[in-house]
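Entry for the shared binder. Reason: the reviewer on the internal report wants the predicted structure included alongside the sequence.
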Amino acid sequence: MSVSSATSGVNINPTSLKSLGHQRHKDFEALTSSIQSGGISGAQAALSALQTDMQNIQGIKGVPDASGTQQPSKLQTDFSNLISSIQSGSATGAQSALSTLQQDRHSQIGAASASSQSSFKQDLASLIQAVQAGDLSTAQ
C-alpha cells in the first residue's frame, strides 16, 4: 500500500513515512545537541535538515500549510522562537528558547498523561461499581 501525497503527487509507502519520522527525531537531537554545546552553525544546519524533514512529512500526509486563522499553540510559538534565535545567530537565545520549548513540552505531556490517567481511573471505578452492583450490562 502506498500513500499518495496531496501536495507533491509522489507515492510513498508508510515505511517511508516511518523512516522520515526517525530522521526527524535524529535531526531534532542534532539540533538540541548543537544548541546545548553553543554551536550555532551546527544548529543552523540541523534546523535546515529538520525543516526539510517536516516539509517532507507534511507532503506525504497531505497536511495543509498552517497558514489559517487558527492561533498557534504554545509549543508552536516556542519552536518559532527557537527558529528565530538560531537564524539570528544567537547561541544564548537558542539555548533559552530550547529550554522553554522542552519545559512546555514536558508540561503538556504531563497534563495529557494526568488527564488520561484520571479518565482511566474514573472508567475503572465505574466498572468496579457496576460489577459489584451486579449490573453486567453497564460493566460491558
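Summary line for the report: Residues 1-9 have pLDDT under 50 and may be disordered.
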